[in-house]
Amino acid sequence: MKTTKTNRQRRTKPPVNIALKEWSSGYMSFVDAIRARKNCLLDMTNMELTQDGIPQVRPGTTRYGTQPLGEVIGVSTFIKVVPSTAPEHYVITMQVINGKGHVLYNRDGGQWTDVGGTYNPHRQVQFVQENNRVYISNGSDKMSYFDIKENKLVDYTSIQTPAKPTVSAKGLDGATVTYRIRVSANNTVGETAASEAALVTVGSYRNSWDPNTQYITVTFPKVAGATSYNIYFGTVASEEQYLGNVPQPSEAATATVKFVDNNRAALNPYKKAPEGNSTEGPIITFLSATNDGMYGVGDMKDRYRLWYSAAGDKAGNFSPFDGGGWVDINYGGDSIPVCAKPFRDGQGKYAVTILTHGSAGTGDLYHMSFVDQAVGDYTITYPSILRANGQSGTYSPFAVVEANNSLYYPTGRAFKTTGSKAQLINILVTN
Fold first, then answer.
1. Which residue in 55, 191, 225, 334 has its CB near the most CB atoms, within 10 A?
2. Phi, psi of 41, deg, nearest 5
3. Contact yes or no for 76/92 (Cβ under 8 A)
């Protein structure tokens, strides 16, 4: 039998290329390599899995720089501007040492410098840099700041309410009307309560006085630490209206201050004699800096209050007579302001945005901006409050973040964002 040989080539399958885009099975150390899943990792030395199962080099385990000396309850950064050199960058913290909150700072991970302090060790601290100072607020201790240039802590200190003034009248004989005059003192932070009222009885009403021959003179002792004094005038107790301001006499030998009223100054019916002392500054929980000063909420004495300071070299001055002041947000309402952030309204105009905290995860969002109002020959600037949305406040003021031209914040029910949408004009949208 004849046989035929053939040279047939064996068919082989092409290699299979497996493309792996993620390792969703994670790290498996309990199986052999041959039995492991295709989308798992068998070796994770110095690696970690991030979002979507993507591996990356893990952070180092060696701690950077000199470690804190105590529990850290607040941390931020500040910049020190030194002439003719590059700005210096620092880390500033509040650390609990021996049961008290101390302010410490360092540079580039170096040794800590303790500048002192006896702050509440159980309150979260916020630092805000403005006017070459780092302001410190925690909602418990009175406001203070770290003076960057002087390298020291400075506490806001209140000044005394002026003593009862004495009043004398010239060319006003008679007993037609009795006026009440009260005096308050200002410092670089706020205003004292008004003094006890001095009474003066005159023969004609103020609006009919002859400025050249009829006037009253108000005299009162100087107050240590005051920069100026406010005079209030009226006929009804606790309804005295602002009349004028007189600076602190510069002469050290002068023990008294004088103010003359001859009917030339107009009364301000919107500014009544204060009953409280704000010269040691407000006690604020949340503080933020903007291009026109600082804004703070969380005043434990006045929970609905939004404080604002002057700007520039007067930043940190909350006195209404130096560009500062306050306004109540939703006074007596069902939500409390907890966060104030520089943002904008729906038209893109700058506005301070206030988030409030209601019950069961609810809240509101408000805009505050300053508005000029002409009243006769005078222009009054006042804070205008507008409600931007309802039921979308926040429980966590320190978690509010501005990113991608929007505000992101947890509401207690969801994590929401407020910003603009291309299809909607002149309004902000909350999602």
1. 191
2. -115, 135
3. yes
For 156-284, where are the E strands, in sequence order? Answer: 166-170, 177-186, 198-202, 215-221, 228-234, 241-247, 256-261, 268-272
Alpha carbon distance 106, 376 (integer Å):
55
- Tell me which amino acid residue 386 is: L
pLDDT digits (tens, 9 = 90+) for 404-420: 888 888 887 788 888 76
At 53 the three-state DSSP class reads: helix
377-408 burial string, b = 16+ CB within 10 Å, else e? eeeeeebebeebbebbbbbebeebeeeeebbb
Write b or e for each residue in 341-361: b if 16 or more Cβ atoms lie within 10 A of its Cβ, otherwise e: bebbbbeeeebbbbbbbbeeb
Handedness of CA 139, 131, 396, 340 (dihedral sign): positive
CB-count exposure of residue 100 (10 Å: 0-12, 13-18, 19+)? middle
Question: pTM of the full predicted structure?
Answer: 0.76
339 near 297, Cβ under 8 Å?
yes
